[in-house]
Amino acid sequence: MLALLGMGLIWNQIRLEKVNQRLALLDEEMAERRGMVQAVADHFSRQRNTQTELQLTDTVRFQRALQEVAQMEGIPSKQLASAVDQFVAAVRSSPEADFLDRALADFASRAFEQSAENASKAVLQARREREAADQVVAAAGEALAN
Protein backbone atom coordinates (compact mmCIF):
# COMPACT_ATOMS: atom_id res chain seq x y z
CA MET A 1 0.00 0.00 0.00
CA LEU A 2 2.82 2.40 0.88
CA ALA A 3 4.55 1.49 -2.37
CA LEU A 4 1.45 2.52 -4.33
CA LEU A 5 1.21 5.76 -2.39
CA GLY A 6 4.90 6.41 -3.05
CA MET A 7 4.45 5.71 -6.77
CA GLY A 8 1.49 8.09 -6.82
CA LEU A 9 3.56 10.83 -5.19
CA ILE A 10 6.40 10.30 -7.66
CA TRP A 11 3.98 10.41 -10.57
CA ASN A 12 2.43 13.64 -9.23
CA GLN A 13 5.91 15.14 -8.79
CA ILE A 14 6.83 14.29 -12.39
CA ARG A 15 3.58 15.75 -13.61
CA LEU A 16 4.10 18.92 -11.55
CA GLU A 17 7.59 19.33 -13.03
CA LYS A 18 6.16 19.03 -16.55
CA VAL A 19 3.50 21.63 -15.74
CA ASN A 20 6.16 23.95 -14.32
CA GLN A 21 8.29 23.49 -17.44
CA ARG A 22 5.30 24.30 -19.64
CA LEU A 23 4.52 27.42 -17.58
CA ALA A 24 8.13 28.54 -17.91
CA LEU A 25 7.89 28.13 -21.70
CA LEU A 26 4.65 30.11 -21.77
CA ASP A 27 6.28 32.87 -19.72
CA GLU A 28 9.18 32.97 -22.20
CA GLU A 29 6.78 33.13 -25.14
CA MET A 30 4.80 35.93 -23.46
CA ALA A 31 8.00 37.88 -22.78
CA GLU A 32 9.05 37.45 -26.42
CA ARG A 33 5.67 38.65 -27.67
CA ARG A 34 5.72 41.56 -25.21
CA GLY A 35 9.09 42.58 -26.67
CA MET A 36 7.73 42.39 -30.20
CA VAL A 37 4.72 44.56 -29.33
CA GLN A 38 7.04 47.03 -27.59
CA ALA A 39 9.25 47.15 -30.69
CA VAL A 40 6.22 47.86 -32.90
CA ALA A 41 5.15 50.62 -30.48
CA ASP A 42 8.64 52.13 -30.59
CA HIS A 43 8.71 52.11 -34.40
CA PHE A 44 5.20 53.53 -34.50
CA SER A 45 6.25 56.41 -32.22
CA ARG A 46 9.34 57.16 -34.30
CA GLN A 47 7.19 57.30 -37.44
CA ARG A 48 4.77 59.61 -35.74
CA ASN A 49 7.62 61.95 -34.83
CA THR A 50 9.42 61.87 -38.19
CA GLN A 51 6.62 61.47 -40.71
CA THR A 52 4.02 63.96 -39.57
CA GLU A 53 4.31 65.81 -42.87
CA LEU A 54 3.06 62.71 -44.70
CA GLN A 55 -0.29 62.85 -42.91
CA LEU A 56 -0.42 59.05 -42.56
CA THR A 57 -3.23 57.46 -40.61
CA ASP A 58 -2.47 55.61 -37.40
CA THR A 59 -3.47 52.36 -39.10
CA VAL A 60 -0.96 52.88 -41.91
CA ARG A 61 1.78 53.86 -39.43
CA PHE A 62 0.99 50.76 -37.36
CA GLN A 63 1.22 48.49 -40.43
CA ARG A 64 4.52 50.09 -41.44
CA ALA A 65 5.90 49.65 -37.93
CA LEU A 66 4.79 46.02 -37.95
CA GLN A 67 6.54 45.45 -41.29
CA GLU A 68 9.75 47.16 -40.08
CA VAL A 69 9.92 45.05 -36.93
CA ALA A 70 9.17 41.85 -38.85
CA GLN A 71 11.98 42.68 -41.26
CA MET A 72 14.36 43.38 -38.36
CA GLU A 73 13.37 40.10 -36.69
CA GLY A 74 13.71 38.20 -39.97
CA ILE A 75 10.17 36.85 -39.84
CA PRO A 76 7.14 37.31 -42.10
CA SER A 77 4.93 40.22 -41.06
CA LYS A 78 1.96 37.83 -40.83
CA GLN A 79 3.86 35.80 -38.23
CA LEU A 80 4.58 38.95 -36.23
CA ALA A 81 0.96 40.05 -36.52
CA SER A 82 -0.10 36.64 -35.22
CA ALA A 83 2.29 36.92 -32.26
CA VAL A 84 0.92 40.39 -31.51
CA ASP A 85 -2.66 39.07 -31.67
CA GLN A 86 -1.73 36.21 -29.33
CA PHE A 87 -0.20 38.69 -26.88
CA VAL A 88 -3.37 40.80 -26.95
CA ALA A 89 -5.57 37.73 -26.39
CA ALA A 90 -3.39 36.55 -23.49
CA VAL A 91 -3.47 39.97 -21.80
CA ARG A 92 -7.21 40.38 -22.31
CA SER A 93 -7.90 36.95 -20.82
CA SER A 94 -5.67 37.51 -17.77
CA PRO A 95 -7.13 39.38 -14.80
CA GLU A 96 -3.57 39.54 -13.39
CA ALA A 97 -2.18 41.46 -16.39
CA ASP A 98 -0.35 44.58 -15.26
CA PHE A 99 -1.04 48.06 -16.58
CA LEU A 100 1.99 48.03 -18.89
CA ASP A 101 0.86 44.83 -20.62
CA ARG A 102 -2.66 46.26 -20.85
CA ALA A 103 -1.25 49.44 -22.41
CA LEU A 104 0.70 47.41 -24.96
CA ALA A 105 -2.34 45.25 -25.75
CA ASP A 106 -4.50 48.36 -26.19
CA PHE A 107 -1.84 49.87 -28.43
CA ALA A 108 -1.69 46.71 -30.53
CA SER A 109 -5.49 46.86 -30.84
CA ARG A 110 -5.14 50.49 -31.89
CA ALA A 111 -7.10 51.66 -28.85
CA PHE A 112 -4.62 54.49 -28.41
CA GLU A 113 -6.57 56.51 -25.83
CA GLN A 114 -7.02 53.48 -23.57
CA SER A 115 -3.37 52.59 -24.14
CA ALA A 116 -2.31 56.03 -22.92
CA GLU A 117 -4.52 55.70 -19.83
CA ASN A 118 -3.06 52.30 -18.94
CA ALA A 119 0.46 53.55 -19.60
CA SER A 120 -0.17 56.41 -17.16
CA LYS A 121 -1.44 53.92 -14.60
CA ALA A 122 1.68 51.79 -15.17
CA VAL A 123 3.88 54.81 -14.47
CA LEU A 124 1.98 55.60 -11.27
CA GLN A 125 2.18 51.97 -10.16
CA ALA A 126 5.92 51.86 -10.86
CA ARG A 127 6.40 55.12 -8.97
CA ARG A 128 4.50 53.74 -5.95
CA GLU A 129 6.53 50.54 -6.03
CA ARG A 130 9.75 52.57 -6.23
CA GLU A 131 8.70 54.76 -3.29
CA ALA A 132 7.83 51.67 -1.24
CA ALA A 133 11.21 50.13 -2.06
CA ASP A 134 12.95 53.38 -1.10
CA GLN A 135 11.13 53.33 2.24
CA VAL A 136 12.23 49.77 2.90
CA VAL A 137 15.83 50.69 2.09
CA ALA A 138 15.64 53.75 4.35
CA ALA A 139 14.15 51.72 7.20
CA ALA A 140 16.84 49.06 6.78
CA GLY A 141 19.51 51.77 6.85
CA GLU A 142 18.09 53.20 10.03
CA ALA A 143 17.90 49.78 11.64
CA LEU A 144 21.53 49.09 10.75
CA ALA A 145 22.61 52.49 12.09
CA ASN A 146 20.95 51.81 15.45
Question: Your description of this structure?
Answer:
With 146 residues, this protein is mostly helical. It has 5 helices and no strands. It has helices at residues 2-50, 58-73, 77-92, 99-108, 112-145. Helix 1 crosses helix 4 (99-108). The protein is extended. It starts with a helix and ends with a helix. 17% of the residues are buried.
Number of helices: 5
> Cα-atom Rg, whole angstroms?
22 Å
Largest sheet: none
Distance between the termini: 58 Å
Shape: extended
- Structural class category: mainly alpha
**Strand residue content:** under 5%
Overall average residue pLDDT: 81
Please bin the fraction of helical residues: over 70%
> Which sequence of SSEs, written as H and E, runs from N to C?
HHHHH
Low-confidence segments, given as residue ranges, are none
Number of strands: 0
Topology:
Layout: H1 2-50, H2 58-73, H3 77-92, H4 99-108, H5 112-145
Helix pairs in contact: 1-2, 1-3, 1-4, 2-3, 3-4, 4-5
Short description:
Helices cover 86% and strands 0% of the residues.
List keywords for this structure.
mainly alpha; 146 residues; 5 helices
